[in-house]
User: Fold these one by one.
Assistant:
Number 1:
Amino acid sequence: MADWQKTVAGPVILEGVGVFSGKNIRVELWPAQVEAGIVFERSDLKGRPRIKLCPENVVGTEGATVLSDGKNDIFMVEHLLSALHGLGIDNVFVRVYGAELPLLDGSAELYVREIMRVGLKLQPKRKRYIEILRPFEVRNGVGRITFKPASELRLSFHIHFDHPLIRDQKLSLRITPLTYQRELAFARTFGFKEELLRRKERGLLKGGSLQNAIVLDEKGLLNGDGLRTEDEFVRHKALDLLGDLYITGLTFKGEISAEFSGHKLHIEAVKSLLAAPEITRLSDGLPPVALFFFSKVPPGVRPRL
Ligand SMILES: [Zn+2]
């Protein structure tokens, strides 16, 4: 079957608490035309500034992935990007009524559910991929990400936390819309009680709660409803990685393995990979540098019904 570009078939609207601000924030996904890519709008600001998703406009921090044009920011884009990547959505216009995306339940499940309820629309242009031609590795301390050639996207993740519910967890998965929905979308973000309390005391994470994260103390879990799977932790890390790999708006063909890494290293790794000569190629034969030509919001990008 030909691999066509996709957008959402109609508007998708979600609302929830932003973990940093504690405010209720609305996000809307609107259909966008072919080749529009993924364009965000700060719909709460005067002039409704738009920020195109592209590597230059993304910064990875320890706690979140941030989209920024240097003036306007949108925090916590990773779970939405993960859902878009996992479902294979190429073109979408995202209206955000705040400086961050709502955390929802801490996973990508609500995005997936609402997007699939509205449906996807095929568009008359082939999808473009980033092919990995040679092995490439990025390290930072104990963190490591490796990229290897492959004919499809496969992710592996390895984490280790000295906690009785986590210890060593590993996952390896071929990513398709089906495996994404079944194996990753439900996995919630997690944090440790002491660290969360410290950050709350400093006025950070105003919206953090047991409704939008797994919270661990020294021995176990504070959430009364338990884990969704025993390895929900590594599954969430893979969900995050998939989101961070989508900062180009293009899917990789390759085998990507991450160990002990987070958003900061994920984003650095993608940028280093794209900047390295002769390691990647776009599937339509264009050099990866062509990505930079797509980095501006194309004129005429409007939500379309
Ligand atoms: Zn996450």
Note: The chain is about 20% helix and 30% strand.
Number 2:
Amino acid sequence: MLFNRRDINTLPFTGGEEWQFGNERKVLEEQSRNQNPKSMRSGFFLNWIHFRLKLTLIKVLIREYKNPIDWFLGLQYLIKLRRRFLGNQRLKKMAYVDGKYYMGLYTPGWRSTVYEQFIASELNEFKKTNSPAYRFNHVFLAITKKCALQCEHCYEWDNLNKKDVLSEDTLHGIVHRIQQLGTAQIHFTGGEPMLKVDILLSLMKRSASGTNFWMNTSGLKLTAINARRLKQAGLTGVFISLDHFSAEEHNKFRNFKDAFYWAQEGARNALNSGLVVAYSICMRKEFVSEENIQRYMDLAKETGVHFVQFLEPKAVGHYKSTDVTLGTEQIRLLESVFLKMNFSDNFSSYPIITYHGYYQRRQGCFSAGKKGLYVDTDGDINPCTFCHKKSGNILDPKIDNLLATMTAAGCPTYTA
Ligand code: SF4
């Protein structure tokens, strides 16, 4: 049975009333329709941005090291680091959002202190820096087990809609702990984090500075008003799950009658509020074809989102014991689309694609306590959102030992 948006009102979830269908929403929706973000930067303008970005790198090097030889070697290190991930591909586009320039979803926007600290943290692996380094690039924090959807691939399936055990105070403690450990980004996830929108707002408002906040959502309840409140509370961007260009197919996959409506509505509202917006797609075997991906990317471009994240299905949660792993040809196609759309001039107005599988197959896993971490709805640490192996609680005083054990065990899927 598919739920519809009226049914959501009857579900026992918390949050403000503003997400429902009031007049203000209609006005903001109208404003949203009238704005075209046109936020991709390419060509000459991009070269100019890139030149200034390099000046920022030099500024960070001078600030972190006294010896000019380290400035030179540090710059070489950063260039090599980039090549390790992308080879010799030249940057062809960046997304401009609310005064900052974004080249990827997991790199903080340039023209921010978080970006500079992120670069300093990368340099710390070349040679110890003056500033304290981020321990992680990103940490996923699941704030609720509740969700109105019932997706085919849900990795939280075994916990879905069970009783939440983390109180608001405990969640504050967890955010505090993660920030103490040091991270450039915290990604709120669930369940559906928008069902706890008031807690989300409170977590961001009471957090320390120096971390960008993101949210992974189906788009549910991401009304114009909620998007604006989240932006004002400090949210940087949203990942909105959209798994098909066809409303019918997406709704069927998500087992929710208005999933497509909310994915699009949420994206428009987030764009209009100055948030970075990414569509995130689970690239199922039956979907992966050149024509389907092109139609999907056309829709993403038309909507105006800045990024599209390709995720490969994993046999966890609802997909446990299911043969969902992509074949060699499908992976080859995804990689070729990723390279073509990101690094050829013909697609400069399309959203930037983030494809973890591409990097992970070349560089191994960055998560599992190395550069990333997943804190689940019990406050337990896991290697990543798709790799559920509880390794102790984030609030444990011996967290450093727990992280060291997890990192030593590594990722079972991707080894460099
Ligand atoms: S995948 Fe996300 S949106 Fe879908 S049921 Fe699971 S928690 Fe909800």
Note: Residues 1-6, 9-24, 30-37 have pLDDT under 50 and may be disordered.
Number 3:
Amino acid sequence: MSTALIEARDVELAFGETPALRGASLSAGPGEVLAVMGPSGSGKSTLLHCLAGILVPDAGEVYFDGQRIDNLGEARRSALRRDRFGFVFQFGQLVPELTAEENVALPLLLNGVRRSAALAEARPWFARLGLDGLGGRRSGELSGGQAQRVALARGLVARPRVLFADEPTGALDSLTGEQVMELMVGAAREQGTTVVLVTHEPRVAAYADREAVVRDGKAKILSMGYAPGGAAERVAS
Ligand SMILES: Nc1ncnc2c1ncn2[C@@H]1O[C@H](COP(=O)(O)OP(=O)(O)O)[C@@H](O)[C@H]1O
Ligand SMILES: [Mg+2]
């Protein structure tokens, strides 16, 4: 019995001869902010991609909201990513041809929301994230911190159940990084979004309810500050 919203169980995945995950188990509860730490090359991104249905594990299982998702076909995993998950990556990955506002509206447009309605949803994020007046800019006209806040708004605008963030402050200076982190965790908590946050900065992990560490393709929960539903957490060896 588990109350996890998103969970990996004994996930294994190799890239050719390179074993990236070797029986990794990890879970996050509804509304929980989970920091995933660990050295470079330990398998953090691969684990995040497995949880998000981007990569399919060779062995093990992935569950979202009580349903197994790793065995779904690409079309259904893609729909899940579009409808239920949000993403923020290290380098914002904004679409350079679009304005900041259009970038934020993009997940809604992909979900079939009409353009005017999508832009109306996107706009309040600019004031909320300290980006007033920047909605018409393109990514080339934004600072790194501004672009990452736009990427954050894009990740949250469709009110995903889970936000996956892979080193979202990795390319920012520490002050800017902390501001982005505070905004991210604040906005996610406000709308009850679960956050799986990969980072190798301990300072960043301080914003999380719990920390896990990935080493040699295995994951381990370090702190137990938050126990969703009081359920015992799975801890991998
Ligand atoms: N697309 C890929 N092709 C081949 N090897 C990969 C690929 N992605 C990751 N790896 C390898 O898998 C291991 C884990 O990588 P990754 O999950 O990116 O680690 P982290 O995010 O912790 O730095 C590393 O040895 C890495 O070189
Ligand atoms: Mg990585």
Note: The CA atoms of residues 162 and 194 lie 5 Å apart.
